[in-house]
Structure formats: structure tokens, C-alpha cells
Batch of 2 targets.
Target 1
Amino acid sequence: MHIFKVIINSLVFTMVIVFMFHTSKTTATTFPEDRNGLGTHTAWYDSSIAAYGYTYHFDAARTYWNYNSSKVHISKNTGSHKKYQDRYYVANSEVKDLIGLAAYYQYTWFSSENVGSNDYWDYCEIVIYENNMRASSNYSSNAVKMNIAHEIGHTLKMGHAPMYYGANYYDSVMNKGFYPIYSSTTDYDRQELYFKWGY
Ligand SMILES: [Zn+2]
């Protein structure tokens, strides 16, 4: 009798774990609400991108997300910034180990204000930090592309990929860290795009 009880208890436990992981995947990895342009919008490149020599890396990072879903395409503007266009920058940071940042904004009647990841966004801003990327032993052209693709992922309402038992579980640029970009969009990242924006 006792052994059956142990087996049943462990089955129940396993089912609870599977259920928890399943629901966490579908609720916690993309941000709620829409953004201006939905998945189809324009990114303005600040002159710092060309100045630091990262134009090609930003283009490759946009391409990582483009051409997967008919609902998702980020175009590029290197001219003057227009309202509702996302803003992309390269800078240096005093904050140790900070390699990238995404921030989200809503326009007000006089300006714009920083809002949370769970709010509606009029536009986003992303910055990658040159000094901290170069200070990393993982610094490479492909790691820079991954870092940018990660921040662009946030502008598409992608959250961080879930970790299990403290380890990265999915192949995804939405894992935290600084490592080479995948040669093509991973299954996980494509599924998350479909989940958020459609096919
Ligand atoms: Zn992130």
C-alpha cells in the first residue's frame, strides 16, 4: 500500500510541476498590451551607431526578428527622427557590466514619459554599451548582434526566456547574457513572436 501512495504522490507532484511550467511559458514571457505599429514599426538609428561601427550589427539584429511573421517587420530610418519611431543608440555606461537597455515611452501632450513593460507604448528606446561589451571576454561581432537582438526583442514585447533549475532552457536571444547570436531565428523565439503578434 505504502509504495502505491508514494508513486501516486510523485505523479501528482510531477503533474503539478508540468502544469506550472506550461502556464509560466504562456503567461510570463511576452509583455501584455500593444505598442504603436504593433509588430510593424520603424527604428531610427542615432548617428552613434555608425560612429561606433555597429550599423551592420543593428541591421543583422533586426533581420533576426524580421521575415518570421507577416505581422512583424522593423524598418530602418537613418535620417531625421519622426514621431513614433523607436530610437536606437550606442553609448558608454558607468554601470558595471551593463551591456544593454530597453526603455518604453508614451507621449504626453507636451513631451513623453517613461512607462513600464506592461503598459501600452508609443515608442521604445534601446541602448547598447560599448565599453562594457568590450570589457567582456565574450566580446565578438556575433555577441554584439545577440545583445542588440535581445534588446530589439524587448521592443517586440518579448520578455526574458524562462530558466529552469537556474539554467537556460530554451535556445533564445531572450536569455540574459552576452554570447554569439544563433545562425537563424530559434524555434522558441519564432513561437513567441507568433504567440504575441500572429503568423
Ligand atoms: Zn533583457
Target 2
Amino acid sequence: MQRTQTITLTRLLSQGGAIKPFPGSTPGICYLCGLATEEGYGEKPSGNFTAWAQCYHGTVLCPECYAALKTPALRRSSWIAIPEQIIYLRDIDEPRALLRQVFIEPPDRPYAIYLTRGGQKQGWLSLLRYVNQGAQHFWVGVDWRDRPILLSPEYAVWALGLLGQLRPKISKAKLWGEEECDVADYAYASEAGLLDVLECAVKQRGDPRWEVMIYAAD
Ligand SMILES: [Zn+2]
């Protein structure tokens, strides 16, 4: 009996039409996804990305990975990929609401989530072997950390609950830890009965899961 294999990210992207692979002519093992191909590309990917730590000892790029590297939209925008399509968050009206919905009720089929702050790094490469298959725990790829972040719907509900009480009054930079909360923030929290909530939120700084939730908060 054949073992069920997790789909690779670039094959998921290909299924959903996010990339358009064409067959190459060189057989080998793919540098990026580690799968064997008869129709690879012999050229090495350009050296302008930093994800070589994730790469396999391959000899070619498979058609899917080759096409994905040549698709700038994958690094320029945040996205959610499912087998039927890719949703670029910059193209929809309520991107953060959609993210929160996916975090709280993840799909019951293969999917991948990538979030970018800068739109420059090929940060999605960290997700090559991290396509989500279930709803209990799921990975989110981000361009501000080197590794995908493991989340759960329970954590999302908890963290988004905290953030919902503090936003928009307390800035995202302060919740993230890029700026310090000042006297006015604590005075506001005290007056609103949110001092415990603010202190709890400040303690979450540095947790990668917390950063993802700040990204998704309004
Ligand atoms: Zn590949």
C-alpha cells in the first residue's frame, strides 16, 4: 500500500494555478523540494535568497520550484494557498478578517499561509515542506523569521481576544515590542479596566505566534 505523502508547497501552488510550470529537460533531484523529476532545470537558482539552509542536496530544479522562483508575486504579497486557488491578501477587501477566520477555523484540506512585512525576501521558501494538512495545528510562514511558526486555533482565539480589547488604542508597534508603552497607554488601560490585559499582552512580545496574531489583528 502506498503511504500518503504530504504535498509540497510548489505542487500545491501549481494545482491552484498560482504558478505555471513547464517541463525542463534534465532529470535529477530538486534542490528545493527534494522530489525526483525527469523534467528538471539544470541551472542553479540565483544566489539572491537566503534559504539555502532548507535546501536538499539536489542537482536540478523541478518544473514547479523553477516556476515558483520566477513568480515575484509570491514574495511581494501575503497569501493563502489552497488546492483550488491562491488568495493574495493585497487583492481582497478584508484580508485581516480572512486571516483571523482561517486561524480560528482552518480548512480541512491542504493549505499554506505566508505573511510578508517587507515583500522582498523569498520567505515563502521556508514553507516548501510545511503544507498544512489538518486543523489541530498549522504552520504559518513569515518573512521576518527564518522558520515557519506553529500555531493552533486555541492559541489564535486566546491571542486575538487579547488584541481585540487593546486595538486600535494600543499601536501594533507597541504590542510587537518595537516601541515601548508609555504612561498614556497605561493610564488608558487603567481607566478602561484593561491593565491586566495590557500587562499580559506585553509579556507575549518575542513569541513568534504573538507576532502572527498582531499581523492579523485590525
Ligand atoms: Zn522542487
